[in-house]
Write a structure and sequence with these properties.
It is a single chain. By secondary structure, the protein is α/β, with parallel strands linked by helices. It is about 35% helix and about 20% strand. It has an eight-stranded mixed β-sheet, sandwiched between helices. Strand 7, helix 12 and strand 8 form a beta-alpha-beta unit. Helix 3 runs parallel beside helix 9, helix 4 packs across helix 5 and helix 11 crosses helix 12. It is globular, with a radius of gyration of 26 Å. The C terminus is likely disordered.
C-alpha cells in the first residue's frame, strides 16, 4: 500500500483520503473484477454442487488443463514430468506424479513461474506471509479466485459490489496514532467501507458502532478477531443495531460455538467462516450446516494419515501449484454433509479430545460416567481406558493382562450399553502394559473424534 504511506495521503483530510483510496482501488480492482471474474461467477452460479459426478468431472477437466499448461510453460514442470502426464485423467491419478516439497518449491520458484509470468513484469504479484518468495498470478488467476469467494458469499445471500459491505481489515488506511475521528475509510467503486481492525478496541468501539448504524451495511466480513471484539462490546453494552445484516463472513478456520453465538447475538444473523490465507492454502468455506468444505472447483487436496496435505491449486497458472506439500494440516471427514454438497468436509487433526465420549443416540458422555464404570469393575480391572475412534464404537482397554474372562467382558459391555445405548458396539481388549497417558480424566478417556455437525446429536449427558 505505497499510496497510504505517502505524506500526501497521511496529511490529507478524510474525505480526500477516501477519494485517493477509491482511485487506487479502482485501478487495482480492475485486475480482480475483469471479464474473467464475471464469466467465472456466472459459470459457478449455473453449477450444482450437490451433483457429485458433474463436480468431479469439472475438477478433472480443470486439473488436466493446469497440468498441460504447466508442462508447456514452466521449465520446472517440463523437467519434472517429461511424458508422465499422458495417463493423468482424474484427480486420483495425481499420485503417479512426484510430490513437490516446499523447500524445493521456494528454491526453484523462478523456474516454476510460467513463461508468461516472467515476460510480463507488470503482472500482479500476490505476496505470501513471512519470508516465502512471492507468487506471480495472472489477472485471470486473481479474477477466478475472487469469483470463487464471492460465489460462496452469494450462496448465503450477500452479493458483492451490488450490496453495501462493511469490512474489518488490518491495513494502514487509518494512521495507527489516530485517537479520534473516523476509524474507517470508503472505497466508493466497490460499495465498501473499511474499518480499521487496529482500532477495534475499547476506546474506539462506540464510534465504530455509531458509524455502522449510519452506514447500514448489507453484510459484514473480515478478520474474526476484530468482529468478535466488536460483538462482545455490543452484547456487553446491550446495544441494538439499527440495521439488519444478511450475514457475517469471518476469515478464520476455527470459530468456537461460544464465539459464533457472540457474533450472531450482536448482529442478529448467521455467521459463516471461510479461509484462503495465501495462494498456497486451500479455499475452505462453511456451509449452512456449519461444516467446513474444500472447494473442488479450485483444486485438489490429497491427505495422508498424519494430516499432511498435498495441494493442487487451479487458479495459479502464473506460478503453478501442483502436489505441493503445504504446512497446514487437514484431514477429510468421511461423512456425508446434510447440506448435500459434494465438496469434501475437512477438519483440523487436533489432539485427541479427552473431556467426553460421544454416544450416537444420547450425545456427549463425560468422564464422570466413565470413572463410575472404572470404579464398578476396579477389583477385576484396576486400570481401564476408554478409546473412541468411531461414532459407532468404543474400545475398552484393561491394562495389566491380555486375557479377558468372558463373563467380565459381557458385564462391561452391558454396563457400557446402558450408558451409551444399544445402537453402539463395544470391544473389550487387554494389554500387558499401562497406557502412556497419565491416568485421571485425561488418560481415562481418549476421544479421537472430531465430530462434524453432520454426525452430532442434539442430546447430551453433560
Amino acid at each position: 500500500m505505497k499510496l497510504l504511506s505517502t505524506e500526501l495521503y497521511g496529511n490529507s483530510p478524510i474525505y480526500l483520503q477516501n477519494l485517493l483510496l477509491s482511485f487506487r482501488e479502482y485501478a487495482n480492482s480492475r485486475k480482480r473484477y475483469g471479464m474473467g471474474y464475471y464469466r467465472f461467477l456466472h459459470q459457478l452460479s449455473g453449477m450444482d454442487e450437490n451433483d457429485r459426478q458433474s463436480e468431479e468431472r469439472y475438477q478433472n477437466l480443470e486439473l488436466r488443463s493446469l497440468l498441460r499448461y504447466a508442462a508447456e510453460h514452466s521449465a520446472f514442470y517440463q523437467d519434472l514430468y517429461g511424458s508422465d502426464l499422458a495417463d493423468i485423467r482424474f484427480a486420483s491419478d495425481l499420485r503417479q506424479l512426484p510430490v513437490v516439497e516446499e523447500e524445493l518449491f521456494n528454491e526453484r520458484i523462478d523456474e516454476i513461474r510460467t513463461q508468461v509470468a516472467r515476460r510480463n513484469k507488470g503482472e500482479t504479484e500476490a505476496s505470501v506471509t513471512g519470508k516465502l518468495p512471492r507468487l506471480w498470478l495472472s489477472n485471470l488467476d486473481l479474477q477466478k479466485q475472487t469469483a470463487a469467494v464471492d460465489h460462496f458469499k452469494k450462496q448465503h445471500g450477500a452479493i458483492n459490489l451490488d450490496m453495501k459491505r462493511a469490512t474489518f481489515y488490518h491495513g494502514d488506511f487509518v494512521p495507527l496514532g489516530q485517537k479520534e475521528g473516523a476509524f474507517w475509510r470508503d472505497i466508493y467503486y466497490l460499495n465498501q467501507r473499511l474499518y480499521s481492525a487496529h482500532h477495534c478496541t475499547e476506546p474506539f468501539l462506540s464510534a465504530v458502532v455509531r458509524n455502522l448504524n449510519g452506514f447500514r451495511p448489507d453484510f459484514v466480513d473480515g478478520l474474526s478477531e476484530a468482529i468478535l471484539e466488536l460483538a462482545r462490546y455490543i452484547n456487553d453494552q446491550r446495544l441494538l443495531l439499527d440495521f439488519q445484516a444478511i450475514a457475517v463472513f469471518v476469515e478464520t478456520e476455527m470459530l468456537s460455538d461460544s464465539e459464533r453465538l457472540e457474533i450472531e447475538s450482536a448482529f442478529g444473523c448467521s455467521v459463516r467462516r471461510w479461509s484462503m490465507k495465501t495462494e498456497r492454502s486451500p479455499f475452505l468455506s462453511e456451509c449452512a450446516v456449519g461444516n467446513l468444505h474444500f472447494n473442488m472447483r479450485t483444486g485438489v487436496m490429497e491427505f495422508n494419515e498424519n494430516g499432511e496435505v498435498l495441494l493442487t491449486r487451479f487458479h495459479t497458472k502464473g506460478t503453478p501449484l501442483i502436489r505441493l506439500k503445504i504446512k497446514d494440516q487437514w484431514m477429510p471427514v468421511h461423512c456425508p454433509c446434510p447440506c448435500g454438497s459434494a465438496h469434501p468436509v475437512v477438519r483440523k487433526p487436533f489432539k485427541p479430545i479427552s473431556a467426553f465420549l460421544q454416544s450416537r443416540s444420547r450425545g456427549r458422555v463425560t468422564s464422570l460416567y466413565m470413572a463410575t464404570v472404572q470404579e464398578k469393575f476396579q477389583q477385576a480391572a484396576p486400570s481401564m481406558q476408554f478409546v473412541q475412534n468411531s461414532v459407532d464404537a468404543i474400545e475398552v482397554w484393561l491394562s495389566g493382562t491380555e486375557f479377558i474372562p468372558k463373563e467380565l467382558e459381557r458385564d462391561i459391555v452391558q454396563e457400557m450399553a446402558g450408558i451409551f445405548g444399544e445402537d453402539m458396539s463395544f470391544t473389550v481388549r487387554g494389554r500387558s502394559t499401562s497406557p502412556s497417558e497419565e491416568m485421571g480424566p485425561a488418560g481415562l478417556i481418549i476421544n479421537n473424534l472430531q465430530v462434524p455437525r453432520t454426525c452430532q446429536s442434539d442430546y447430551g449427558m453433560d
